[in-house]
Amino acid sequence: MTNFRKLVPAHLHALASYKPGKSLRQAELESGVPCIKLASNENPFGPSPLAIAAIKAASSEVNFYPDNGVTELTARLAELHEVNPNQILVTAGSTTFLEIIARTLLGPGLNAVTSKLSFIVYPIVTRATGANLIEVPTLNDGYDLERILAAVDDNTRIVYLANPNNPTGTILDADAVDRFLDRLPSHVITVLDEAYCDYASYFAAQRGLDYSHWHEYVRQERSVVVLRTFSKAHGLAGLRVGYGMGPAELMSYFARMKPAFMVSSLGEVAALAALADADHLRRAVEANAAGEKFLSRAIAKMGIRVVPTWTNFLFCHVGEDVSNLCQLLQEDGIIVRPMSGPWGAPDAFRVTIGTREHNEQFVGALQRARARIPELK
Ligand SMILES: Cc1ncc(COP(=O)(O)O)c(C=O)c1O
After folding, report:
1. N or C end of the chain: which has fewer CB within 10 A?
2. For ligand 1, atom 15, which residue shows the shortest CA distance?
3. What is the pLDDT of residues 232-259, one digit of tens each?
């Protein structure tokens, strides 16, 4: 008999796989009621009708392999962002880009640095390479850049900054990131993960904050990789399209590490169509901002601490283990994301801001659930 464990490198034995938010179908089967999924920060309004039309039109040609170079989308993104096409690489979602970066730059004996309570894909992609992930404590529910700088050593190759952060929804302003980058040694690449940039830019404009100097970093070929995705505000999570922008030479190494044909033909046409529908995007971020006001107030009124958000989700600090609360919510048709397990905050949950109807149903369900848990009343 083959000893499979012996065949697999030792650093993979303890690796935990990514646990996604519960799927709608699974939750409905478990609770026997129709459910609303507010667990994975998807766009509740769906993709642009232009994207749906493009997917339909391209569907008859899925017998052909897609364009391995994702040429049309890359060119369009380069034009839109005013950078060179060789500074952009399109991948199957930005999580795949994270994996490519880790496989390219990390290995046993090396490390990456990030914060506790940040995106749970960072530990997975880092540890899969045999490298170590150093997670520093949070400051005001977000990144503590001083502590991150202090944790960087000669073996550090990557710093992951999710801006805004998932799951806490906090933001780093552009000046803080500028100062941080100026102090970072040249052997470290910063991954500036801007998955929620559309929501953050909108809030930043409303609240008078300078959000991100990503464009300067890319133009100046700083040691920064800016990650973007079509999974959030563009509503295309199911099609898996994301991209990164950074120094051309570094991107050429990433390109060698990318699996062939990783971006589907439907993903490419849908992303192109989504980019052409600015109105759809604007409506999504505006509705999100209205939902944020309504939900933040309603949840805080129940004595739950809500971290001020710059994204399309809220980090809700209940102060007691939330498993029971999340179970009751699910029985009442609402799926949220408990922040237990790898997230590291068993007394908190994260809820995605939904449509107005979703948000109202969630608040009703949360009130009913709290009433049934004596410690939370
Ligand atoms: C911070 C952050 N980065 C990246 C992603 C990944 O997005 P995708 O792989 O769907 O592009 C997410 C998704 O939740 C996220 O929260």
Report:
1. N
2. 195
3. 999 999 999 999 999 999 999 999 999 9
